[in-house]
Amino acid sequence: MSWWERLVATFKRPWVYRPLVCLLAFGLGWVLSVVLIPSPKVGVIRFQDYIWYGSTDWLEVQFRYAQEDPAIRAVLIEIDSPGGEAAASERLYYDLLRLRRSKPVVVMVNTMAASGGYYMAAAADAIYTTPSADVGNIGVISSLPSESLVEENYLFTGPFKAFGNPRDTYMRHMEVLKDSFIEAVFAQRGDSLDVERADRSTLSRGEIYVGTVAWQIGLVDEIGSRDDALEHAAQLAGLRDYEALDITEELSSAGQLPPLYYGPALKKWPAQLSKGDLPAGYYFLYLPPQERAPYQPAPKGGK
Questions:
Q1: Domain containing 216 — which CATH number?
Q2: Could you give the CA distance from residue 210 to residue 214 in angstroms, rounded to a whole number?
């Protein structure tokens, strides 16, 4: 019997070929799992802008991508925002809650999550912040209609057709929106808040807290870095080995994400806030005083 015939005869023995078949099947299964089943990922979304209808559309494209990709098991959102339009902020809050129902969501505040920026962040499973970041500023601003409710060159069929409501109604609406904002914070973070230092009355004052203080009173969960927040998102998803996928870069490179920019109207917000002539509407917005235009009273005599 030749050496080849002896080798074939050996492999025909059950105690030889069965383990070999098992080993080959295991190897093939491992190769297929690597090729066909992608490694788990933590998706990263980076947001640095005012909140307005343009930025909500920009973010929702990324939320949808994160929700529909089965390889993305958790999401980290880096927020640097002073807030913006009230309706747009509320929309992002509910969008984030919907995303959170399908996979863990962690927010990282690098510089600022104020007003509507914090409203959005409150929907996450956990919030991380740097020690010096600005957090909070819970409240509403709005522009009031003129007291006379008269506009030259325009005719209106009713006393409130021009502005929708009298001045006192605008103020009542602001209170309703403020209370909704505060209740959303308590609904998501009530168990974490220090009720002696962060009760409803205190939060309604609209203060901004540095990250360390925000952590002490329970507005955020941890002081840490982006890597700390990323690791926490992975832990919430039960991941040990994972990849970080920059969703913002991924979609931008693929041409699936329009460029994010400050809209022309938003560039005027600081000056308009100083002069009290913001466009009609309600805003969960904070603009640092140094960014506002100096107040200049109207000249006397109409000149």
A1: 3.90.226.10
A2: 6
In whole angstroms, give the CA distance from residue 257 to residue 143. 33
CA distances from 238 to 38, 40, 77, 234, 247 (A): 16, 10, 18, 6, 20
Please state the φ and ψ torsions of residue 255, each to the nearest 5 degrees.
75, 15
Closest CA to 136 of 269, 266, 286, 283: 286
**Per-residue pLDDT in tens (0 to 9) along the chain, 303 residues:** 565 555 556 555 555 555 655 566 666 655 555 455 668 999 999 999 899 888 899 999 999 999 999 999 999 999 999 999 999 999 999 999 999 999 999 999 999 999 999 999 999 999 999 999 999 999 998 876 655 555 556 556 665 655 666 667 778 888 999 999 999 999 999 899 998 899 999 999 999 999 999 999 999 999 999 999 999 999 999 999 999 999 999 999 998 987 766 555 566 666 666 565 667 788 999 977 766 655 555 455 444
3-state helix, strand, coil in the chain (%, to 5): 45, 20, 35
Q: What length does the chain have? A: 303
* pTM, entire model: 0.80
What is the Cα–Cα distance from 80 to 51, expressed in whole angstroms? 11
Distance CA 120, CA 122 (A): 6
Residues 174 and 168: their CA atoms lie apart, in Å, by: 10
Q: Is residue 19 part of a domain?
A: no
Domain for residue 277, yes or no? yes
Residue 121 falls inside a structural domain: yes
Count how many domains the chain has.
1
Q: Look up residue 19 and give its two tokens.
A: 């383990």
Residue 163 belongs to what domain range?
39-296
Q: Is residue 22 part of a domain?
A: no
Cα–Cα–Cα angle for 210, 212, 214, rounded to 5 degrees: 65
